[in-house]
User: Which sequence fits this backbone?
């Protein structure tokens, strides 16, 4: 799991070159609702899925598609939970976690 402090930071550059999705049809990552099975299957075997998720969580301007086998709805759930945990640990202002 990614540490809370790192969740909203971009991963080190270059990780995308090792991504399995770089060798596939880009349309797979922007499926119609509920049709992300193939993208998620590919992500499950990707060696840089953690970096991809970290990048998705840091990129609040791109809230569409599948990244690291997760959807924008899941990204927001992870962000919200991370903010709550950070606030409880005193890492961020509690108002920012709401």
Assistant:
């Amino acid at each position: 799991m990614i540490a809370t402090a790192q969740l909203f930071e971009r991963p080190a550059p270059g990780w995308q070159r090792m991504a399995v999705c770089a060798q596939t049809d880009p349309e797979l990552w922007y499926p119609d609702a509920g049709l992300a099975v193939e993208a998620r299957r590919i992500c499950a075997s990707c060696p840089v899925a953690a970096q991809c998720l970290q990048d998705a969580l840091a990129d609040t301007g791109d809230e569409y598609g599948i990244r690291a086998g997760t959807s924008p709805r899941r990204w927001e759930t992870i962000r919200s939970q991370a903010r709550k945990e950070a606030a409880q640990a005193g890492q961020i202002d509690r108002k920012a976690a709401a």
Observations:
- The radius of gyration is 14 Å.
- The chain has one domain: 4-97.
- Helices lie at 37-44, 49-58, 72-88, 94-97.
